Amino acid sequence: MTYDPASANPLAANPLKTRSDMQHALQDLFDPLLPYFSKGNARVRLDAAGAHFDRAAADLEGFARPLWGLAPLAAGGGDFRHWQRYADGIANGTDPNHPEFWGWVNNRDQRMVELAAIGFALALIPEKLWDPLNGRARDNLVTYLLHARKFDYADNNWKFFRILVDIALDRLGVNYDRSLTNAYLSELDDFYIADGWYRDGNVRRVDHYIPFAMHFYGLIYSRLVDDDYSKRYRERALAFARDFRHWFAEDGATLPFGRSLTYRFACAGFWSALAFADLEALPWGEIKGLCLRHIRWWADKPMTHRDGVLSIGYGYPNLLMSENYNSAGSPYWAFKAFLPLAVKEDHPFWTSAETPPARPPGTVALPHPGMVTMPCKGDVVALSSGQENRQMRFGSEKYAKFAYSTRYGFSIESDERGFAGAAFDSMLAFSDDGIHYRVRETNQDVRIAGTVLYSKWSPWPDVVVESWLLPAAPWHVRVHRIVTPRPLETAEGGFAIARRDFELDALYALTGAAYAIGEEDFSGIRDLGSTVARQGLAQKAPPNTNLIAAKTLVAQLRATIPAGETVLRCAVLALRDTSAVSSDWEHPPAAPDLAELRAVAEQGVTVSAMNAPGRMP
User: Fold this and answer.
1) Where in the chain is the domain with CATH 2.70.98?
2) What order of strands is seen across the sheet that includes strand 535-540?
3) HSE (CB half, 13 Å, CA atoms) of 115?
4) Cα–Cα distance, 400 to 422 (Å, whole number)
């Protein structure tokens, strides 16, 4: 009998269409955690892998994160048999004399993150977590929360964490210094760009933290607090919904882009939060469809271990793509998707029939994140001007590739000395020794002109690259002007598609072109008249580098460019259609003249993600 890793997925047999289905899904995802609760119920330790923070904080993460789904379940009247376990865990975790004490919060401590879930649950369902506590346990909990408030929270979405704790303190009748709350609300506003878009702090990046953090917490705030900030958060969510819907494909998949993708279906959290806040940013049938289709997309993915515990990874268990702040409990931020369970069965989110989003056909420019989205036969491709994340692992792959796809995801590299065998999907890589390589990490200039993206970047201080990206669905075109004082080896990749076992794939490496045909997909790249000859390569990428498929193929073009100026032009195509080689592949788009592209770029506006917010130097 062949082992099917997807069969361990607790969502596999669930239709995920109704409120009852979602209640069962939450229970089924939670139940595998039960054997890992500690004796005093304050800690959940799922494996021995480490994160950058201490083990007690990691155990708290495993304990607290399920509350993002369990609290809404209870608020909506759903049954959960283990509330006493959680009440005992909170009492013991905040008791300095108990062996399972979580440890005191210090400056910018991971515990701050997890206390947000506890604060949210205390505010929403005090009868489950506060009322069962005796006087001493309540005093310990309040002391613990007040102590945490004294410290500075990270200058990003973390500021909402103290605000959620403050809402709980308000509802529990605890006195505290509210000036700190007001200060953070004001500082969070400094991250706002326009048209519903934020940055996650004073950084040059715009990613899934905008929907599943900034808007998610803002919409919770708008439900629990009535003030001017609440109104502001609702107005911004209305605007954001119109853009964010373009990140989702027909099958429910969203763009894998940026960090923290191990949170998986937390990416539906924005749509879930609209239901919680009773905010019809799009017709309810569209909101419901965007939310539930996304969760259904995960139902056949081997995203859990054999015991049903969510793994670190994305489409499958994969520590390689993780962040240094991912412990084994981190993936349970995915429970944010269950926020609609807090609203009653007769809410229009649940009573409406699912409908596809009524979005305009064709390409759509999103100037704030610096993207142009293209629907491509069941896929959504986002051309990206490139953002910046030098603080975290694989920041270039997660933020600075030329394109991201709901079907093909993206790959991270596994060997900094592996120029010859690297994936380089949706990237242009350079090497001056044939071993090490450089790719785009950040930009000096980024503009968007209509649906054309322009960026200027330098893999080394003395090498300058200008890149233009143009949609031509289902293709996209790339043009690069490179000025270098020395010869360099180059490699440019298309999309990574899943490989078949037993070497049954069709691989074609040609002069000026390469393509690969897997079991279901076609991927190819064609040169469009570069100033140097390029050789095609159908690259078998290293295993476990792609987020969605563990083994992939990438069509590449490779060449050595001379000192001076070189212009590289290519067209890239990937489709879930193995017959594309005899149809779309035969009709590539043309590359515009470089002078024409320069004129277009000069008319463009700077991408918002590259602009400095109020307090950024």
Assistant:
1) 366-609
2) 428-431, 488-498, 552-561, 535-540
3) 34
4) 16
- Model pLDDT for residues 405-458, shown as the tens digit of each residue: 999 999 999 999 999 999 999 999 999 999 999 999 999 999 999 999 999 999
CATH ID of 19-351, from 1.50.10.10, 2.40.50.140, 1.10.10.10, 2.60.40.1880: 1.50.10.10
Dist CA 274 CA 428 (whole Å): 39
Q: What is the pTM of this model?
A: 0.96
- What does the pLDDT look like over 260-315, one tens digit per residue? 999 999 999 999 999 999 999 999 999 999 999 999 999 999 999 999 999 999 99
Cα–Cα distance for residue pair 87/126, rounded to 1 Å? 10
Residue ranges matching CATH 1.50.10.10 in the chain: 19-351
CA–CA distance, 550 with 316 (Å, rounded to integer): 7
Task: Tell which CATH classification among 2.40.360, 1.10.10, 2.70.98, 3.90.320 matches the domain 366-609.
Answer: 2.70.98
Reduced 3-state DSSP string for 499-561: CCHHHCCEEEEEECEEEEECCCCEEEEEECCCCCCCEEEEEECCCCCECCCCCEEEEEEEEEE
Q: For residue 496, which of 424, 440, 428 has the smallest C-alpha distance?
A: 424
